[in-house]
Amino acid sequence: MNRALLVPLAFVIGCGGAKPYGQTTTSGVAAAPAGPYPGTPIAADSYGSGGYGQVEVVSEAPSERPGLGTVWGESVYAPVTTTPFVRASSSAWATVGMLYNDADGVTAHAQYLGASLAPIEVLAGDGSIGISVVDTSGALLPGVTGDGRAFIVGTDGERYRLVIRNGVNARFEIVASVDGLDVIDGQPADPARRGYILDPYGVLVIDGFRQSDDAVAAFRFGAVDDSYAAKTSGDRNVGVIGVAIFAEEGATWTPAELYRRDTADPFPARTYATPP
Predict the structure, then answer these.
(1) I want to staple 94 with a disulfide (CB 3.0 to 4.6 A). Which of 60, 125, 152, 220 is the partner?
(2) Over the stretch 107-146, which tens digit does the pLDDT of each residue have?
(3) Where does residue 184 fall: left (phi above 0), alpha (psi -120 to 50 degrees), or beta otherwise?
């Protein structure tokens, strides 16, 4: 029997001196010997050929990526139990990706899109499911949407939660990831893994990476190099939150299904029978 996790939460909650040839300079580029005239060092690529020129100094690449990642935070009490859930399909009913960054990064993106920052909730599928990122008080974090994407503003050191809100009378299974890692087992995320249950008209709050049946490690924004992903599988996917939503086997009373019922035609146009 397939099992899924059920979260019983209902709230949204410089010095001088000569250097010998071949010695590495502070910029990481080997120093060339002095030319025959003061102030005219021989270019590294023409040394020995009689050419003269200026040595090009190349700066080292930054050792740390800019922006934010999600670090492994403090332990938070968040018990779960298990309950049966059979997916209606192996394919997700809807998927959502939300990018996050510091204020400078998101503001620059907002200006590029010609939009303004505001608290946002992203609607999934036909609008039945709402997904947001909130602070410890439950307030929506600001962001911007454009080109079918959402960008959320985070603050270094700030704790956050994922909130998924169900607007219909049906259960859904929620498989969530942060920085490309599954929030339940911390492994590279895959929608085929089992997730949390979202009850009819319920609210699911995901506080962090699950440590046990009783606790999670809180989500906190931090430097990319300090992120949980960077310290485990790598920082390639840092800065994105993903949600895959699966409908339960059987009737799913979503707005789209209700619309089909509401607009059912008792007398569709008659045609002649055709071979199967």
Answers:
(1) 125
(2) 888 888 888 899 999 999 889 999 999 999 999 999 998 8
(3) alpha
At 212, the amino acid letter reads: S
- Residues 243, 131 contacting (CB under 8 angstroms): yes
Distance, in Å, from the CA atom of 42 to the CA atom of 15, rounded to the nearest integer, reads: 22
Q: Whose CA is closest to 134, among 158, 115, 156? A: 158
What are residue 99's DSSP bridge partners? 151, 240
For residue 250, what are its two tokens? Answer: 């059987």
Q: What is the DSSP letter of 61?
A: P
Amino acid symbol at 152:
I
What would the pLDDT profile of 243-254 be if each residue is shown by its tens digit?
999 999 986 667
How distant, in Å, are the alpha carbons of 54, 55, 125, 170, 224 from that of 165?
A: 63, 61, 13, 12, 29
- DSSP letter assigned to residue 218: E
pLDDT band at residue 274 under the 50/70/90 scheme: low
Pairing of strands 196-198, 3-6: parallel
Contacts of 23 (CB under 8 A, 6+ apart): 30, 31
Please give the angle made by the CA atoms of 75, 81 and 83, to the nearest 5 degrees: 145
- Dump the DSSP string for 140-200: BPEEEEETTEEEEE--TT-EEEEEEEE-SSS-EEEEEEETTEETTT-SBP-TTS--EEE-T
Q: How many CB atoms within 10 Å of residue 62?
A: 7
pTM above 0.90, yes or no: no
Angstrom distances, CA of residue 257 to CA of 84, 166, 172 = 24, 15, 15
